[in-house]
């Protein structure tokens, strides 16, 4: 199945993990020297020099110890400490080179996998380091995999009348947001007991539980553009129905389908040269005599669909949040929305999705999540983002088409810095209720004599931090 855009089967003998690859490029190797500028070259030279000096010292120390025959446990501990220090120093230099790419991926600038009927781009983990098109992509892929993010993201563009052919994913749920166009969706569940079909338009959400068979047909006049989240940080494993068909022995296919003409009929199927993953045959008008796009009843549709754009707007001084998420007991949801809420909660490893609009100069204030990693995609506007984790903290700017990643527990903020509103789609790796704590809330909740002792500052000073009636989650100066 030569299908580089979608296939993500386990690679064979050639593959080696990106960690190993990173380790290779990160030592004082010629690889690295080619790519660094002169100042970091100097740094690396100094680190290498330091390392060799310390290694020599350690060697001398070891020799001295061996020859004097005094290998007391205490001395061994000292040696180990010296070695660790060398490793730590080297690591810090590696990390500060481009730490931001652990959290940032320029998705729209990434490699485009083209098909007759459309294209796909990815921000994902690759088992074989050679499958990344840049070091930056590798940093991001390794980071979401190391953090066990349970998320991968990609864009799927389908030309008008094009079809992402029927397929299923072995190892991930799929939750998508339609950015543009309109599509007709089909979902077939276990035993084909229900076939759910529905139209989706821009601003709405689709959900395909793991291994449900599904298709997406672009039905509007303009191209469709989906942003798709898959609930895995490993390589996505996918099978397309045509690939499976052509891999099934003809007599077995004939026995399964029992067509008129038997195996002779099966032999009339010819496998096209081009990968059909997203197809758009030139003779489509001849092929299709009549198409009907039926809509299943609402209680079926909403298991796999959510009208995010039409859902309740949560307004804050600096912006608006809307959610496609699980709520216990369906609180705040209408009947349709409750069906979706229950549906994502009853499947394992689903995601909470939301859109966040932040007005110019608005701030999604510093906060963190107890129970989810977060990934986001910028639809309009631009922002400055800051992340504080247990490693070195970092901040950087993001613009349209960028993907960002906040590992669970890291404190992060998003400040809208363009004239246009910042508008983003966010995904959180939980199908339960998201748990969040904002910086102003934990400051107010901490006793002021504790703050006084913490910051070595008079208790009464903390009265200067006011409380507001409005929730300041997204605020303005
Ligand atoms: C779905 O979209 C197609 C193409 O725009 C349209 O012909 C059809 O009526 C729509 N179906 C429903 C149920 O809205
Ligand atoms: C539920 O969704 C269907 C379309 O899927 C719509 O026709 C109906 O009005 C919705 N009901 C409510 C209560 O929003």
From TrEMBL:
Q: What is this protein called?
A: Uncharacterized protein LOC117358345
Question: What is a single cellular component term in the Gene Ontology annotation?
Answer: plasma membrane
Q: Keyword set for this entry?
A: Membrane, Transmembrane, Transmembrane helix
Transmembrane as a keyword of this entry, yes or no, is yes
Gene (name only): LOC117358345
- Give me the segments passing through the membrane: 44-67
Name the InterPro entries for this protein: CLLAC (IPR031379), Cupin_1 (IPR006045), Dynactin-associated (IPR053297), RmlC-like_jellyroll (IPR014710), RmlC_Cupin_sf (IPR011051)
Source organism of this protein record: Geotrypetes seraphini (Gaboon caecilian)
Q: Cupin type-1 domain spans which residues? A: 121-267, 331-463
């Amino acid at each position: 199945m030569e299908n580089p855009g979608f296939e993500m089967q386990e690679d064979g003998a050639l593959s080696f993990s990106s960690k190993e690859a990173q380790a290779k490029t990160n030592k004082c190797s010629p690889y690295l020297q080619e790519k660094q500028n002169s100042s970091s070259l100097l740094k690396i030279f100094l680190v290498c020099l330091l390392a060799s000096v310390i290694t020599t010292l350690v060697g001398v120390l070891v020799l001295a110890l061996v020859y004097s025959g005094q290998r007391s446990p205490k001395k061994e501990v000292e040696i180990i400490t010296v070695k660790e220090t060398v490793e730590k120093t080297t690591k810090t230099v590696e990390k500060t080179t481009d730490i931001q790419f652990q959290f940032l991926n320029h998705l729209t600038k990434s490699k485009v996998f083209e098909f007759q009927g459309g294209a796909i781009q990815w921000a994902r983990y690759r088992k074989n380091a050679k499958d990344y098109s840049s070091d930056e992509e590798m940093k991001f892929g390794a980071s979401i995999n190391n953090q066990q993010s349970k998320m991968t993201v990609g864009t799927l563009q389908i030309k008008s009348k094009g079809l992402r052919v029927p397929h299923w994913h072995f190892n991930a749920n799929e939750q998508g947001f339609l950015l543009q166009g309109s599509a007709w969706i089909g979902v077939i569940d276990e035993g084909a007991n229900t076939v759910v079909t529905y139209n989706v338009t821009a601003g709405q959400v689709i959900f395909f539980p793991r291994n449900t068979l599904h298709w997406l047909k672009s039905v509007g006049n303009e191209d469709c553009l989906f942003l798709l989240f898959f609930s895995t940080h490993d390589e996505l494993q996918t099978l397309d129905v045509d690939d499976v068909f052509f891999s099934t022995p003809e007599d077995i296919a004939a026995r399964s389908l029992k067509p008129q003409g038997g195996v002779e009929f099966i032999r009339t199927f010819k496998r096209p040269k081009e990968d059909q993953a997203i197809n758009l045959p030139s003779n489509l008008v001849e092929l299709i005599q009549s198409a009907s796009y039926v809509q299943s009843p609402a209680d079926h549709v909403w298991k796999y669909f959510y009208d995010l754009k039409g859902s309740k707007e949560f307004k804050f001084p600096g912006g608006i949040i809307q959610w496609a998420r699980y709520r216990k007991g369906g609180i705040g949801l209408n009947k349709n929305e409750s069906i979706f809420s229950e549906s994502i909660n009853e499947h394992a490893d689903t995601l909470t999705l939301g859109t966040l609009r932040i007005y110019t100069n608005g701030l999604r204030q510093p906060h963190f999540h107890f129970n989810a990693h977060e990934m986001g995609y910028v639809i309009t506007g631009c922002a400055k983002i800051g992340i504080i984790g247990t490693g070195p903290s970092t901040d950087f700017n993001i613009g349209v088409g960028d993907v960002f990643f906040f590992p669970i527990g890291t404190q992060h903020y998003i400040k809208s810095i363009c004239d246009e509103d910042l508008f983003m789609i966010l995904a959180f790796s939980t199908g339960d209720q998201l748990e969040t704590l904002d910086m102003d809330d934990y400051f107010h909740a901490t006793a002021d004599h504790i703050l006084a002792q913490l910051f070595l500052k008079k208790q009464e000073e903390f009265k200067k931090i006011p409380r507001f009636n409005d929730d300041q989650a997204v605020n303005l100066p």
